[in-house]
Amino acid sequence: MPTQARGWGTDAADQPLKPIDFERRDLRPTDVAIKITYAGICHSDLHTARNDWHGTKYPVIPGHEIVGRVTDVGPEVTKHKVGDVVAVGCMVDSCMECDQCTEGWEVFCRQGCTQTYNSPDRHTGEMTKGGYSDHIVVRDHFVCKVPAGMDEARVAPLLCAGITTYSPLHQYKVGKGSKVAVIGLGGLGHMGVKIAAALGAHVTMITTTPEKGEDARKLGAHDVIVSTDPEQMKAAATRFDFILNTIPVSHEIDGYLNLLGRSGRMVIVGALNPMPGFTGAQLIFWNRAVGGSAIGGIPETQEMLDFCAANDVYPECETIAMNEVNDAYERLLKNDVRYRFVIDMSRGL
């Protein structure tokens, strides 16, 4: 039987989030039911709630950084059991048959993965509803295990900010001896610094704000470059093997490309909008390349959680009650958070 759920969402782009009652589907044979204990707030949640990307189907209930406990499983589920602490990220289903899915890159499913919210269910066509709610039902393959001993209250942002930064660092084999720069010290950037440092890299934070230098060093950065200082940028030319670019808006990259050494790589994880042109010579000389990276697949997401558990890597979080979400959104617009909001679902739902 379907179950009654309570969440926070909105009916329109110009309306605040409010309590909404709705139904969660009955368990399919491969489904897991999860009581949500914590849900992270991502900038994508705000963009979707306010229809900034022009694809929101209302009513929408955001949330794709989810931690909770298993309360029920379908008859074919063997990976999880009642009582397990688990996590769900940006997707909850895919075709599981194409080359991308079978190779562990479900996010690039040829038929399109089913996202955790504002995405049509593969079987019914109903729009998925996310983690700002008391419980959720998810296909078992898309449910990750939270390693024993992790701080449950700080895990949720790893399911988006954590995997978004871990995936390119992992793909490009960043490790001991790597010289890495992270551009931008926000929700993504601060995780990039922490994970790159935990991988053994020498990490430099690049920022436009000198005052962020102290924070960056506390988070694990070994050096700081202020990008608005021409002398600092000139001195860093060809210094880095890898640059993780977390700037969330369109921006010029020529100046940053000059910081890459031979065969260096810059990976963009933040900016979704059209970017200004860059000079081809910046790539051709020194054999540089620019790429992009989304979240990882489910195997890599589990690997990221295991890595963070083993290395005591967590996001810096401010915990709020569910009924404080609208204030949190306004603060998010002002960059007034260090560095991620996490909703305690036991409060204010």
Characterization of this structure:
With 349 residues, this protein is an alpha/beta fold. It folds into two domains: 3-159 and 315-344, Medium-chain alcohol dehydrogenases, catalytic domain (Quinone Oxidoreductase, Chain A, domain 1); 161-292, NAD(P)-binding Rossmann-like Domain (Rossmann fold), CATH 3.40.50. 23% of the residues lie in helices and 27% in strands. The chain contains ten helices and 17 strands. Strands 3, 4, 5, 8, 9, 16 and 17 form a seven-stranded mixed β-sheet that branches. A six-stranded parallel β-sheet has the order 12-11-10-13-14-15, covered by helices on one side. β1 and β2 (18-24) form a beta hairpin. α3 (161-171) packs across α4 (187-198) and α3 crosses α9 (298-311). The longest helix is centred in the last third of the chain and has 14 residues, at 298-311. It is globular and about 65 Å long. The two termini are 23 Å apart. The mean pLDDT is 97.
